[in-house]
Design goal:
By secondary structure, this protein is α+β, with helices and mostly antiparallel strands. The protein is built from 5 helices and 6 strands; from the N terminus they run H-E-E-H-H-E-H-E-H-E-E. The longest helix is centred in the middle third of the chain and has 23 residues.
Length: 158
């Protein structure tokens, strides 16, 4: 895969934007069909925060651009491209998993469904996957567009 060309383009883009001191690592996982670009930097916290943006907005926009650049180099359209900066997404994912487990525990005890706030598709997917093997709760997405959210419901005991 000529994904190294994409890596070089990403590095050039970051340097043009004023972010100079970083390392970029590329991981290809053919098992789950994903190419991960991991940026690790010693940016000052403000610069790193600016690159990530509030709630990851800038990171997701940069990932969108990266995905467009990488599309022609991917073996087939089912492959995904992800970008993480200073482990921001890895930490966020773990926090979402913890949140899902906590709410699931509350739902299992109270036997009352809980509706979560609207979330991005990526965040909903993490919660659905985290609770998919639960024997005490089930998840369901409701709503449309930016208002789409998850409801965690207790499973009825027979």
């Amino acid at each position: 895969m000529e994904i190294l060309e994409v890596k070089k383009s990403l590095e050039k883009l970051l340097k043009l934007a004023g972010f100079g001191d970083f390392n970029t690592e590329v991981q290809e996982d053919s098992q789950v069909k994903v190419v991960r670009f991991l940026i690790k930097s010693d940016f000052p916290k403000e610069s790193s925060g600016l690159l990530i943006g509030q709630g990851g907005e800038n990171l997701f926009a940069l990932e969108y651009i990266l995905r467009a650049m990488a599309e022609r180099y991917l073996p087939d359209p089912s492959w995904r491209v992800s970008l993480d900066i200073n482990n921001y997404l890895a930490i966020r994912e773990e926090k979402l998993r913890e949140f899902a487990r906590k709410i699931a525990h509350q739902v299992a005890l109270s036997k009352k469904a809980v509706e979560l706030p609207p979330m991005r598709p990526r965040d909903r997917r993490i919660i659905h996957l985290e609770l998919s093997f639960s024997t005490s709760v089930a998840t369901e997405s409701i709503g449309e567009g930016k208002e789409r959210r998850i409801v965690i419901k207790p499973l009825l005991e027979e």
